[in-house]
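Q: Can someone sanity-check these two? First one:
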Amino acid sequence: MAVEPLSQKEIEDRLAELPGWSLDGDRLTRTYRLGSHFAATALVVHIARIQDELDHHSDLTLGYHTVSLSVNTHSVGGAVTAKDFELARRVEDIAPGHGPH
């Protein structure tokens, strides 16, 4: 099944189910603040595993106590697709203090 860009309404509906995530231009974004640099680094490793499993990768930035993600789907011209939301949901499920939905 081909990956298709989502409409603005579909994006808004899906964002309502992922508190903390937002649309910044043509990318889904989220920043997590963690209790230590070690915890932030550990989250990056877990996110990298998920991205490899999905074969869909975000821009991932590690700060001192923060981890930021920014993602869209390059194969459809940099639009937001269901693949981006699947990645966001999977990351949200493993983020400290968030847990499965």
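And here is the second, same format, sequence then tokens:
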Amino acid sequence: MQYVAPVGVGLLYALLMSLVREPHRRRFNAVMVAGAGAAYLSGGGLGGWEFVFTAVVTYVAYRGLDSWAFIGVAWLLHTAWDIVHHVKGNPIIPFAHSSSLGCAICDPVIALWCFAGGKTPKELVAWVRGARERKGAVPGERGRSGETSAGVAGA
């Protein structure tokens, strides 16, 4: 359960964030990851490196205001920082020893969603279907819509 629940939390985060309309969704997520980057400031135990990390994540999150890819990178940076804290023994929640490990499992799930463009579940399904259709397309072969893979009906 220690490994499954964080995946569920990441999926729930993406699902709930999908309710926010674009472009607000991207900008809101940039702010969220910037806040996550400062989570260890109050006692992470790495001294001045906590400030360095926070500055780096803040910059990457700022770039994320206009790019889902940067938001995904910021979540992966936070994942690495979670692992450092888990190994060092300074968890994100002081009374929950494995909280940094849980965060390190959750964050890449969110990052994957961000790398996919922060799409809603409906958009994700359409995106995956479209990718499958494009991958399996043979030049000149007709798809379900009657168009050839070249994109012109009847050609």
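A (reply): Looked at the second one. The helical segments are 4-17, 24-37, 49-63, 68-88, 99-115, 121-136. The radius of gyration is 20 Å.
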